[in-house]
Design goal:
Elements lengths: L1 H9 L7 H5 L7 H23 L11 H5 L6 H33 L21 H4 L5 H25 L18 H7 L13 E2 L10 H13 L4 H12 L9 H7 L1 H8 L6 E5 L6 E5 L7 H30 L4 H33 L10 H6 L18
Antiparallel strand pairs: 1-3, 2-3
Helix pairs in contact: 3-5, 7-9, 13-14
Length: about 400
């Protein structure tokens, strides 16, 4: 705070220069210097650890909930413990900042003119609720933080599904262009959590595939947090994510409706997981861009899109047979006919997606170069992928 006042005098403009900092009058003995250096280094270390606990950091190693969890407790208990730790850390930084201010105030005889107080809301840590969720009550801040912690965990789980991360080894695993499942197995032998073999994970409104994202997430919960508290942990996650307090809400609702929006936001409109999506959204499937191969579009089309259509056709035929049998009650008959009409709309969406977009795209065997960045590569797939507002605009 003292230095801020001095700098405002030396250079009142927004173009602060190194020379301005060097011009600040410093007047302390070696003991004070050492104490101040220790405070500064402590806060630097805390801030670095805070940033590195988020997967956007180059030095990210493991999700904090995974790191903190004990097999003897539930996920909810772990979240609450971590929240308490986060509060203690933020208050410690606040204390150190105020101590630092006191040193400078005393050194320059500014007692009574400048307050050493440092608001908790200005402690710039991602884990500090007072900074991240300003103008909210304490209860609201904790609730919002729990939501973000669970979303961070889910993002990490998807990384584990694709082999970007591993429950058995910290840090990035598959992070180079064109890496395969064999590369993962070489780096993480005997993995406790099964990584998706073909780099395609369907995200559908029901469990149509064995490698469905919801089933994979449920398995992730069992492996990462144990089976003893599995149902309790899943319920806690669903309750936490149900911010609109809907009467019916499940983890599938989050994956189908909200996950990709959160992923795009997390990676600043440069997603590392790409969502193939039909025009009406009835078909969705994720791939990991670092494991992309020129045949990946064909795989999405042949093994998932067309397979999904076949399964829908089979259900429609079974329902039509039941309706034609004349054995159903009026209510059952109406319900079956309603479902038949729903399936027809889904199939129409899939047929349009296939004929207009996926089939022509699959013939191209598109190559990508990670060095070109997401912006250049993502737009190569046009309407096959979820639209990201502004991504196709040219850089100025």
């Amino acid at each position: 705070m003292y230095l801020k006042k001095i700098l405002e005098v030396l250079n009142p403009t927004i173009s602060l220069q190194v020379k301005d900092v060097r011009s600040c009058p410093i007047n302390f003995d070696i003991n004070s210097r050492n104490e101040i250096d220790a405070i500064v280094q402590n806060n630097i270390d805390i801030s670095k650890n805070d940033w590195d606990s988020y997967e956007n950091s180059w030095n990210f190693k493991v999700n904090p909930l995974i790191k903190e969890f004990s097999k003897e407790v539930s996920l909810e208990s772990t979240v609450k413990k971590l929240q308490k730790d986060f509060k203690d850390i933020a208050q410690n930084v606040q204390r150190l900042e105020e101590l630092n201010n006191k040193y400078f105030i005393e050194l320059y005889g500014l007692e009574g003119e400048i307050s050493p107080d440092y608001p908790l809301s200005e402690v710039t840590l991602f884990s500090n609720t007072s900074f991240m969720y300003k103008n909210k009550s304490e209860d609201e801040q904790l609730k919002l933080q729990r939501v973000d912690m669970i979303k961070d965990l889910i993002s990490y789980s998807v990384g584990c599904m694709f082999g970007r991360y591993s429950l058995d080894k910290e840090g990035l695993i598959l992070c180079n262009s064109g890496e395969t499942i064999e590369d993962f197995k070489a780096k993480v032998p005997n993995s406790s959590f099964e990584v998706d073999e073909d780099n395609v994970i369907p995200v559908l409104s029901d469990n149509w595939f064995s490698d469905d994202i919801v089933e994979r997430f449920k398995n992730f919960l069992k492996v990462a947090f144990g089976e003893e508290h599995y149902l309790e942990n899943l319920s806690f996650i669903e309750q936490t994510l149900n911010v609109k307090e809907k009467t019916s809400y499940s983890i599938r609702d989050y994956f189908v409706n909200d996950f990709y929006t959160d992923h795009i936001k997390r990676y600043k409109k440069r997603p590392i997981y790409w969502m193939f999506k039909s025009p009406k959204g009835h078909f969705k499937a994720l791939i990991y861009m670092h494991r992309y191969q020129p045949y990946s579009v064909s795989r999405v089309r042949n093994e998932y899109l067309l397979e999904f259509r076949q399964k829908l056709d089979a259900e429609k035929q079974n329902l039509e047979t039941l309706v034609d049998s004349g054995t159903l009650s009026k209510a059952d008959n109406n319900a079956k006919n309603k479902r038949i009409e729903e399936i027809k709309k889904i199939i129409a969406d899939i047929n349009n997606y296939d004929s207009e977009i996926m089939y022509p795209l699959a013939q191209q065997n598109i190559e990508i170069d990670l060095d070109d960045g997401v912006k250049t590569n993502y737009v190569k797939f046009g309407k096959a992928l979820e639209k990201i507002a502004g991504l196709d605009k040219k850089e100025e």
